[in-house]
Amino acid sequence: MPLDPRLTPARPDLAGLALRGEVEAARFVAGEPRRVAVPSAPLRRAPSPESGIDTEAVLGDAVTLYEARDGFAWVQLVHDGYVGYLPADSLGPADPAPTHRVTALRTFLYPAPDLKRPPRAYLGLGAALAVTGTDGDYLKVADGYVFAGHCAPLGTVEPDFAGTAERLVGTPYLWGGRTTLGLDCSGLVQLCLELAGRTCPRDADQQERALGDVLPSDLSDLRRGDLVFWRGHVGMMLDGTHLIHANGHHMAVAVEPLRTAVARILAKSYGPVTSVRRLPLTPSAGA
């Protein structure tokens, strides 16, 4: 099969060393480990602020850096393999590795363990932190302090990924969005599954190929957590009849009857449902 350009660090002038013999390029490099050092950063398909956002990287995300030039870093995200251009100043060293993850929808980074101090940054659900100590109710990190009650050690999971999606109702729709400031359809699914300890590709077509088992196409016998796919869109069932999805109709993460969404999407946008898929009950079962 042809290589997916979204997941392939290859250009005519430069490619990842692991691709030697598979692609043609003037130069091959192994890449260097780095980590996202800002609350979030847009990953674009071209090194220009006018280029569309394919996805977002968030604080603590590991990346492989292949080139930094003219204010942009050409990278591959480790957690889902996506390739693109981040702002070069959004990256820091790979170490120390994160120890905790933000579990609140949103929290703040303070200069001191004091909620009355003006915050330095906003951090969203899923951001990863390297904690170096504690001070009262706060965790100490390199750039300040975060309220401990808004975080949990890495490895802590929320198995009800549909419940995580429900917490995000009302989040604005953002093409390429992957944070609680803005989400697209597949970004919502990816974030919720990753917080449940499940690996998940980034885009809807990738998710449709990789996740779960195919269910009957008549939309019968659905249950909480089932994923409904269209060509270019995905939503998640909250029960047998209601769908939650980030969508451009509501311009937000919204809940609606599945039949309502199916009829509107058929008439106005992505056409018919292409498949329904059910994930195993536990990640160890092959999610």
TrEMBL record:
Q: Where is the NlpC/P60 domain?
A: 154-280
- State the similarity comment: Belongs to the peptidase C40 family.
* Keyword field contains Protease: yes
Query: What are the entry keywords?
Result: Hydrolase, Protease, Thiol protease
Q: What is this protein called?
A: NlpC/P60 domain-containing protein
One GO term under biological process is: proteolysis
Give the originating organism: Methylobacterium gregans
In the UniProt record, does the keyword Protease occur? yes
